[in-house]
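Researcher: Go.
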Amino acid sequence: MTDILKTFFSNKVQEIQTNTEGFVTQSSNSIFKIEIGRSIFDLHPFFESLKNELIVDDNLNMAFPCVQLDINKNEIVCDITIKKERGYLAILLFDYTDHYENLHEAAQEKKAALLNEQAFELNTKHKEEQKAYLGVIKERINTKVLKEMEFLTVDIQKLKATSLSEEQEALVLDIERNISALHQKTIQINKGIDVDLG
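Model: Structure:
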């Protein structure tokens, strides 16, 4: 193995040994500086949470992936292997911070792409529903409102053909103007719906 690989791996792996009570007897200090004689259980809440198991069980092998440790203001994400036998505890820390950060970034990118895809699908569905709704409105305007206005216009023409007083004729003219204005607005609305449907 080349010196570069030895240096790389020695900077990414830390070996810690404690006695059966959890007091550090050896540490390679390649990731964290840990004083000899310090209790592993005071080092970080992760180790404290395992105190009963590590002290009581005589033979054990444990492995924990993706553990975030913050010791002496040095924060890493690591895999931890713990082995207890013959009166000592061996702890190996494997620093995979870069690996886990890359996985996290890839997961975030995947999540963002998925959210964008869902937003596109929802937007497309919304546009289709809006188009269908506007189609229904347009049909109602054509079949109901405009037809009713045509019937009113015919009725007004019949009314005008009768003998009306001046006041009635003025009233009929006002009604005709109002119907004509309403008819123009309805046609404009209909054209506006055509633009939205396009």
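Model: The longest helix spans residues 97-160.
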